[in-house]
Each structure stands twice: as structure tokens, then as C-alpha cells.
Design a protein that fits this description.
single chain, alpha/beta, Rossmann fold, five-stranded parallel beta sheet, 6 helices, 5 strands, about 15% strand
């Protein structure tokens, strides 16, 4: 079974590049564009790793890392925070929030895999040891507003439909550009 990565980045370019790199390496990827949606998706995606832009809108990557570490059902998840040259991630702040590592954008596939492989081993050990997950006490159920449920459902639908939409649009554009 392929490892699952929840990729949270508000840059469409960074998101698509990250998705492509990770999928080509055999990982399952679910992408979101803000921290609030990432929080919603943690439960249904149950990712092995959360790769989050440290400066996401609505909830930052730092807040997400802290939530993961404070929530028994999610503590096994590895957390990598990403930043850029113009928005560098403070290593001390990342560590205090509970992040397992920092990756600077733009990153190459080699750099990302070098960080993911040992982190995924650590996550697998946590899951096998039963530190967290199924043996954890149940979390209190918090009702989710209809708007949030709809947004999460739309996100899931778009994640699954995106590859087919890209192919269809590409074919139509190529057909339209062909000389008659």
C-alpha cells in the first residue's frame, strides 16, 4: 500500500509540482489549498505525512503541526513544513510546533524523498507500536458546519476528477489548435 501524503499549499504551481513529483514516486497525494481544509481532511485521508506550507491561509502550517501533535488520533502523522527563500521557516518555531522537518521550495524530488523515506519509517514504527491510532481513546465529536462539509466534499471530488479534466481539456485545446 502506497504512503499517503496530505499536501497543503496555497500556490497552485507548487501544489501541482509537488503532486506530480510525489505521484511519480508512487505516493498517494491529496491536495488542499488552506489550513482549515487540511484540518478537515486529516480524519478522512489519514495521511502518513502532512506536507504543509508554513504560511498557509486560514491556519498556518505551524498551527497544523501543533494540532497533529496535540491530537491523539493524529500524532503518528509525520509533519514537514515548507517555506521559500522569501518566506523562510524558522527551525526553532517549527520544532516547537512539532514539525519533523523543513523543506525549502522549490525543492527537487531527490531532496523531498531524502526527507520522506526516514520520516515514513518513523511513522510506520509509530503505527506498528500502537502508540497512537486505533488504540487511542475516541476524540470528542465536533459538529461541522454545512459549508465546511460541502467544501470538503467538493475538494474530494475535484481531487479525483482533476486528472481526467486535464486530459479532456488538453485534447480539446489541441483539437481547436489543429489547422482545418
Amino acid at each position: 500500500m502506497a504512503a499517503r501524503i496530505l499536501l497543503a499549499d496555497d500556490s497552485a504551481i507548487a501544489q501541482r509540482l509537488g503532486e506530480r513529483m510525489l505521484r511519480e514516486e508512487g505516493y498517494e497525494v491529496v491536495s488542499v489549498t488552506d489550513g482549515e481544509t487540511a484540518l478537515l481532511r486529516l480524519a478522512d485521508v489519514d495521511p502518513d505525512v502532512l506536507l504543509a506550507d508554513a504560511f498557509l491561509p486560514k491556519r498556518t502550517g505551524f498551527e497544523l503541526a501543533q494540532f497533529v501533535r496535540e491530537t491523539i488520533a493524529h500524532r503518528h502523522i509525520g509533519v514537514l513544513l515548507s517555506g521559500s527563500i522569501t518566506e523562510p521557516v524558522d527551525p526553532e518555531k517549527a520544532a516547537a510546533a512539532g514539525a519533523d522537518g523543513i523543506v525549502q521550495k522549490p525543492f527537487g524530488v531527490g531532496t523531498l524523498i531524502e526527507m520522506l523515506v526516514p520520516l515514513l519509517d518513523k511513522v510506520a514504527d509509530r503505527r506498528l507500536a500502537g502508540e497512537f491510532g486505533a488504540d487511542a481513546p475516541p476524540l470528542p465529536v465536533t459538529p461541522i458546519a454545512d459549508e465546511e462539509r460541502i467544501r470538503a466534499a467538493v475538494t474530494v471530488a475535484l481531487d479525483e476528477a482533476m486528472p481526467q479534466m486535464v486530459e479532456l481539456i488538453t485534447r480539446e485545446v489541441l483539437r481547436a489548435l489543429r489547422p482545418s
